[in-house]
Amino acid sequence: MSQDSWLIVGLGNPGAQYENTRHNVGQMTVDVLAGRIGAKFSPHGKTGSRVAEGWLRPGAAKLILAKSNGYMNTSGGPVAALCKYFGVPPERVIAVHDELDVPFDAIKLKQGGGHGGHNGLRDIAKALDTPEFLRVRVGVGRPPGRQDPADFVLGPFSSTERKDLPVLLEDAADACEGLVESGLTATQQRFHGRAAE
């Protein structure tokens, strides 16, 4: 596999009941990317995933977009299997996930660091034996009042949020493309100026 291949994994849970929840915003983002590169997801049995492959443009890096068939907290096995199968090192893995600590409608990017209680990130770091993969943190904000964060992320977006969701997903897809084409620092500068840290 070319050294220019990147693995972009949209984190989420399988099944129709989770499809439009905050926890699945990562999978929604890779759907946007698949549309941009004209690729469709198909089962990839060896890795327990659905995969779509394509190029941003002729001569550009190859994108391997993936969604695990399993639940969020078991994301690591499929990601490690995809890295092995496609020959992608951890530093060219981008995990796209929901982030409670980022306000809705904002995007933050980082490489490495802790998992902040996010079970999908925890499992990927364990399976790859390193936390040094890239993360596109798609802001979903904190739950209102005393609502349990787990219930909040497994719930659907509010009607107000749904109006802005398409723009948020396009931004998240732009952030993924930015990481591939411009690197972390340049892409952080582009997105982090939009909202207060």
Structure in a nutshell:
The chain is of the alpha/beta class and about 200 residues long.
Ranges with pLDDT <50 over ≥5 residues? Answer: none
Strand order of the largest sheet: 2-3-4-1-5-7-6
What's the CATH architecture name?
Answer: 3-Layer(aba) Sandwich
Q: What structural class results from the helix and strand content?
A: alpha/beta
What does it look like?
Helix content is 37%, strand content 21%. It has helices at 25-37, 76-86, 119-128, 149-153, 159-182, 184-192; strands at 5-10, 42-44, 49-55, 62-68, 93-99, 107-111, 134-139. Strands 2-3-4-1-5-7-6 form a seven-stranded mixed β-sheet, with helices on both faces. Strand 2 (42-44) and strand 3 form a beta hairpin. Its EC number is 3.1.1.29.
Q: What are its keywords?
A:
197 residues; alpha/beta; Rossmann fold; seven-stranded mixed sheet
Sequence-ordered SSE layout with sheet pairings:
Blueprint: E1 5-10, H1 25-37, E2 42-44, E3 49-55, E4 62-68, H2 76-86, E5 93-99, E6 107-111, H3 119-128, E7 134-139, H4 149-153, H5 159-182, H6 184-192
Parallel strand pairs: 1-4, 1-5, 5-7
Antiparallel strand pairs: 2-3, 3-4, 6-7
Subcellular location: Cytoplasm
Main location: cytoplasm
Organism: Leucobacter exalbidus
